[in-house]
Amino acid sequence: MRTFNKLKKVAMMPYPKNTNEEAKANKARKPKPPPSFVSRFTTTFSSMARKPLLKQTLATLFLFFVLYAIFNAFFHPTDSSAFDAAATFSSASSVLLSAGTTKSLYVKVFLYDLPRRFTSGVIHHHTLARGSGGVGGSASRATPDDVADALKYPGHQHMAEWYLFADLSRAESERAGSGSPVVRVADPEEADLFFVPFFSSLSLIVNPVRPPGSNSGLEKPVYSDEENQEALVEWLEKQEYWKRNNGRDHVIVASDPNAMYRVIDRVRNAVLLVSDFGRLRPDQGSLVKDVVVPYSHRIRTYPGDVGVEDRKTLLFFMGNRYRKEGGKIRDLLFQILENEKDVIIKHGAQSRESRRAASHGMHTSKFCLHPAGDTPSACRLFDAIVSLCIPVIVSDNIELPFEDTIDYRKIAVFVETSSAIKPGHLLSKLRAVTPDRVLEYQKKLKEVKRYFEYEEPDGTINEIWRQVSKKLPLIKLMINREKRLFGKEVECSCVCTNQTAVIRTL
């Protein structure tokens, strides 16, 4: 403080008059060193003293501020511990928010231990229906180990239900560090969400199709998907945590468009994981409430890098030519494209041989056609993505997975149905795409394809859980809203009146 007073005193000294006596005395003195930092400020201030009073006052305040700052910097150094602590906290917070490395940031999920008939029982009956003895067992309930070790879940295009169940069934020590935004909890009281691991898509395809004229149709089938659906809902409706919030905080996989069709109205409050909304009414499914999940691709992932040299075919498609409803576009496209020289378009059903042919075709083509099937989406879109084959989407009402993360315009070509069926339009559009533009599409495909790889460590499963986690604020809003409505039954929130969440008025 003594130093500060000295500096202040120097700063306030009036500018001395240059008399003859003082000049003589100065000549007699020895030369002085260059003026100090403080003396330069003093000189500046003294010159300002001749300015009007307002400017002088402002200059004085400024000088005092500078001198005070200099004094504190040299004689009272800042204690950096507080700053370091703040910086450490800030840095840690940013890491935690991006990587989700603290339990408090995880969404807590309780995995229901369903009766065996809804999990391993479905796999068992599917195995029997396909002519194998399968693995039986007298246990009335299944554990994750029962399903993982005793029975093999069969591969098909709606395997999300299996991968999600298998992910939660792993020991938490194995899941730690996987990047998953959810953590499994053993106590349902701690849970934010409840996962119902019914294999609804597999259940739908358990019974083999009987040949026409078969008398076996008169007999009651050994397995009934409809009975299983109803039994599941009856079981759920008895559970305390389903009744507590009317099922709103429950997650159910119904990725096959026909899965859960018998009981969909009884579970529509839950977060439904679907492939699209083609078979759901607007009051049953919504982009606001539910999550669109990708089909599991059925062909090999392309092992090579981007490039056009080995992709001699312009456009490729292999699949069922004749479909119902929106899929009628396929037959029209066949008629337009099947005789084009640089196009391969084939009719083919699901089989091991068809998948091999499709893998080769997609890996050697620049563009892969994705017309609507019985519903707007189909597995070939995701086969194309992992093949680095640019999808050509001809499906006006398609909903796509993870659109808050992926800009599909950068990885796919969209063609309106009415334009695609005009002769010459589709191919002229594709032929106009330059090789450099093809490479740009491929690079983007390579960047995002992990989102469509169910077995990728930080792939599809983690992204599905992220999408589910984002529904939690809306779920809590709906639960709290319903509790204040004096017990009035609410069929659905106004945000679910249609798929776009826009309230339409007549």
TrEMBL record:
Keywords: Glycosyltransferase, Golgi apparatus, Membrane, Signal-anchor, Transferase, Transmembrane, Transmembrane helix
Compartments where found: Golgi apparatus membrane
Membrane-protein topology: Single-pass type II membrane protein
Any single Pfam family the record assigns to this protein: Exostosin_GT47
GO cellular component: Golgi membrane
The family this protein is said to belong to: Belongs to the glycosyltransferase 47 family.
Name of the protein in question: Exostosin GT47 domain-containing protein
